[in-house]
Amino acid sequence: MIRGTMSIGTVQAFFQYVNQAGEPLTQASFMINTLQSALASAERTFELLDSEEEIPDPQNPKILEQAEGHIVFDHVSFGYEPSRLLMKDISFSVRPGQKIAVVGSTGAGKTTLINLLMRFYEVNGGHILIDGIPSSAMSRKGLRQNFGMVLQDTWLFEGTIAENIAYGKPGASRDEIIAAAKAAQVDYFIRTMPHGYDTIVDSEGSNLSVGQRQLLTIAIVFLCNPPILILDEATSSVDTRTETEINHAMEELMHGRTSFVIAHRLSTIRDADIILFMENGNIIEQGNHQNLLKKKGAYASLYYSQFS
Fold first, then answer.
1. What is the mean pLDDT of the chain?
2. pLDDT per residue over 174-186, tens digit each?
3. Of 172, 184, 247, 294, which is the most exposed, with the fewest CB atoms less than 10 Å away?
């Protein structure tokens, strides 16, 4: 072009044609990536559609309006795959109002035991009885309305604090909501918020501390007033003062109710009526704190390792 053998127009046309030739190749590469992503998504979708359906609820389910809290595991066995059982011949009985602690190492089957109680999974053998009624004879909704859960992870939805507390009882009055908050030791901090009970909580509760979210969860359960409680260790990531407040609220919540406590720190369950020590999916020891220490078995070894 400098020598005059090619015009500026010819050079401009050359680069334009190069871009026009390369653009389809670029679009084709993007299309291939999109097709690969779509193929992977389709495989997961059809895997879900082909998965086995839940066992339907009985046509005439037994109704248990307000359970007393008498629970029996009668020779229960369970495995995520029928050919590989995780739990074999699990049996124990709980009287109304008792506190049951479930302890063991990570992966021992503590959460699986609770999932079976709530019928998130179906047992492969034996029966789980609630006040003498097999859980399989009740509808899932009818069974679970007798349970209240306070877990390590808290879930709050975007809305006011009052709406979050009333989640389990939509028709609750403001007086009932406040009474539940007071019982959970959470009323004071709510009143210090900019708009009190009408303060907006975001979907992850990031404008509240971990302890405040946990206390709100306890207030939700107080308002529902269930006869049976499931409590996961709720104080593992809070300071000592907040831990004391949460433990006090949980003690009030457990009073007069059958309670299952998944324990990680054994100091919190020494007063339990029954301690179930699990290992590899099975209960290897059960009894109260003093009796298990006298046995000098797995529970005693774990207890002394924490307080040596």
1. 85
2. 898 898 888 888 8
3. 294
